[in-house]
Structure formats: C-alpha cells, structure tokens
Amino acid sequence: MTVLLDKVTAVLCGMTLTFQTLLVSSCASVPPDDSSHDVASEVRIEKPQSNLTETPDSNETPAPEGPLRIGIQEAILLAMENNQALIVERMNPQIQRTFEQEELAVFDPLLSPQVSNRRTVTSRLSRAGSSTENSTVNSINGSILLDKLFPTGTALDLEASTSYTDHSLYSDTFTANRLGFTVTQALLRGMDVQANMARVNQARFDTLISQYELRGFTEILLEQVELKFWDHALAQRQIDIYTDSLNLAEKQMAETQERIKIGDLAETELAAAQAEVALGRENLINARSTLARERLDLLRLLNPSGSMNWDRQIVLQYETSLPEINLEDVEEHVQVALRMRPDLNQARLEIQRGDLEVVRTKNGLLPKMDMFISFGKTGYADTFDRALDDMDEDRYDVTWGLVLETAPLNRGERARYSRAVLGRQQLRKALENLSQLVQVDVRAAHIEVTRAQEQIAATTATRNFQEEKLRAETEKFRVGKSTSLLVGQAQRDFVASQIAEIEAVANYLKALVSLYRLEGSLLHRRGLSAPGAEPVVLEPQE
What we know:
The chain is 54% helix and 18% strand. α2 packs across α5, α3 packs antiparallel against α5 and α6 packs parallel to α11. It contains twelve helices and ten strands. The longest helix has 68 residues. The strands form three sheets. A six-stranded antiparallel β-sheet has the order 3-4-5-6-8-9. It has a two-stranded parallel ribbon with strand order 1-10. The protein has a two-stranded parallel sheet with strand order 2-7. With 542 residues, the chain is α+β, with helices and mostly antiparallel strands.
C-alpha cells in the first residue's frame, strides 16, 4: 500500500498544480515544492523558497499592497500556517496533554508539614491536697508527613514528629521525638497495576485521539483550500467566457441594426439580438458576483496577512496542461482508507480506551483488603538533642494487620462494570458500521472521479460541435438563410458548452481531491506531515 501512495504522489504533485488551457489564456508556471511541511501543533511550518507572498511579522500588520499571486502549493502552505480555525484546532492536543499530568499527579508524593503552639493556664488541686494551685503549660508540636502512592497499590507514609512541653509546676521540660513509617499494600481491590494506571493511560489515549482529530481537520481544511482554488479559477474563466459572449452578441446586434437600416433585414430581427445582449450582461453580472464570493471564501481560508484586507484581489497561478492519470483499482483505495482514515483510527483508539475502562471497573468489583505494617522509634528527654540520642535505645513500636471493606450488594460498581462492557461492545459495532460507511464513501468518490474524467472528453466534443453549429448559423444569417433568434440560440448553446467543459475539468480535479481526502491520504500526497500519520492496529476481540 505504501508503494501505491508513493507512486501516485509523484503524479499528483504535478497534477494538482495544473488546469486545462480552457481555464486560463496565459499564466505563470509555479513548480511544486518537494519539501515536507509539518502541521503538528508543536512544529512550526517553514516556507519553501518560492514566490509565496510573505506573511508580515506578528508585530507588524500593515495591509498588503497589490494582488495576492499564488499557486496551489503556496495556497496550501498559507492555509496551513495562517488559517484561524486550524490555529485553534492545534491547541487541542496541547490542552489534552495537561490531563495526562493531572492523572499522573495521583502518584506524586505529598508533603504535609504542620506546626502548632499551645498555651494553657489553669488551676488544679495542689499536690498537698489541701488547696488549689495555678499552672501554666506551654507546648510546641511539629510534624512532617510524606505520603506516596505507587501503581502497584502500595502506599508509603513517612512521618517525623517532635513535641516540646514546658510545665510551670515542674523544673524540667519534656521533649519527645518520633520517626516512623507505614506501608500499606492492597491485596484485592487496587492491586492490579493496569487498573491503577487506567486513568493515566486513558488520558494518553485522549491525547492521541485529539491528534487524529487534528489530522482529520487538517485534511478537510486542505480539501477546502484546493476546492476553493479551483472554484475561484472556474469563476474567473466563466467571466472571460461571458465577456467574450457579450462582445459577440453586441457585435451581432450592431450588424443586425446596420442591415435593418439598409433594408436587408426586417425590424423584428432586432429584438432577438437585443435579448441576447441583455442576457449576456445578466450572465456577466452573476459571474462577477460569484467570483467575488469565491474570493472572500478563499481569502478567509488562506488568511494571508495579520490584518485581513478583504478587498485584496487574488491572481491564481497554475500550469495549463492536464497530465493523464491512471486511477488505481478501487480496492486499493479502499484498503488505504481502512488503514489511514483518521476517524477510523480514532474509533480504534476509543475501543482501546474502552478496554481500559473495563479493566478499571472490573477491579472495582473486588472487596478492599489491605495489609499494613507500621514501625516507629521514639526518644524522650528534657531537650531536643537528648531526645534524639534516646532514640538509639532498644525501644520501638510496631503494628501490623489487615483492613477489610466490602459492600454486600455493590450495585454501583456492578453497574459501572456492566456499562463499560456494553460500551466496549457498542464501540466495536460502531467501528464496523464506520468501516462500511468509509468503503461507501471511497467507492462513490472513485465512481465520481471516473465519471468526471470521462465527462471532460464528452464536453470537449460537445463544445466543438456547438462552436461549429454557431459558425454555420452565423454564416447562414449573413446570407439571409437564418434569423437572429436562431443565431442567438446557437450562441447560448455554445456558451453553455464552454461552461460545461471547464466545469468538467474543475469537477475532475475536485473529485480527485475528495477521493484522496476520503481515503485519508491527502496530506501524504501533498507532502505535508501531521500527527496521526501511523495507523492504529486493533487487537482482535477475545
């Protein structure tokens, strides 16, 4: 399949820069750039050495002067770098990565220092037992606790504490220092590493999914740019055709008026000639309006400058020959789509994410049983230093045991597990359905490319016949064997055949772009790289 993509890429790079001679009378040829450009959110796009209009620096946004002269490759690069919607979409993977760090934070160590000072002034029965005596107690307590949870279900607590007491009824102060640790190990729920890491890995899958979403969005944008490029070229050529048609109709009307003056034609012939002129002006007005709308749409997609000049004109540059392309068998395109389509790969990642949810919720069905052991040493003295030294004595405390916690019904966990299992099954069925839809899309697009390619030859033949018909009808009119109405009809048929011919060429180029987008290879064929280029392999269900 890779050989197929590489073989077609070489032809397509030349193909996408071309339009038939019908679309332009003369234009500059812009050679394709062979360098690869990354549209990943973390990679900056570099401009090729070509006649691409320079984008102003971000700090300087003067309105550009003169028309924007671009070829198809330059248009693509401008859109990949400056399109506002793509700039917004690029941020999604970066945002999604923050959720990975958030889930990993569960396993970060937690440091909890605490210090307190307490003073107590009270009265109590005297030690002689005959009266009361006042006492003042000043105490300072400090502790540092370090907690750490591991993916193995092990929790480690390290604690260091000290307390200082000064009692007014005693001459000596009292200090207690303690060092200890507690280790807790999950034996049932929480012991599975895969279940404990499920949320972290799900967040990573979400990041990958956002990258495939970015790739799919980029391919759609690239398709829109190319379609609008050819729509703009088509609209411009339609203006040329309608302008030539109007000039011909005006010339025909002038000739009719002259022949009426000399008595060679009846005055009734003038109405048909005038109608053709009016129709030509109407068509030209509509064509200019269409070009203006196409120009606005293309400017929005390209966003060529920091300060958008909506009145800026666009001059398209492309080659004037249409190379022959032998379209591969539809099955080969289908296989490429099943591997490369971003939405299919995204669906496969959703299934893998659902598998992790099943593992996580299944672990929740188990009762909680943790084993723990706590060990510590404490030193007592009248000062802090002596209390530390006292910790060397053969005195310690140790505690161990088991903690069991279970819910007899456990309905919440059972419901979550059942939902995860059903959700995974639903995702697999959705993938099968999406695969069918992808095949339909690719097969239908392949049919459209074939139809559009055959339509070029058919419309060319029709245009040749209509041109000959117009020539014959015009000659008959000049010798008095035809009427202005028939000549006008022939002119309209000829103009319609010209429009149909250039539309067939444009539709063919657009159909190819749509086919390559639907099979997920458009970025590859245009020499652009983006996240999500690797196909996702889904393990068969057990």
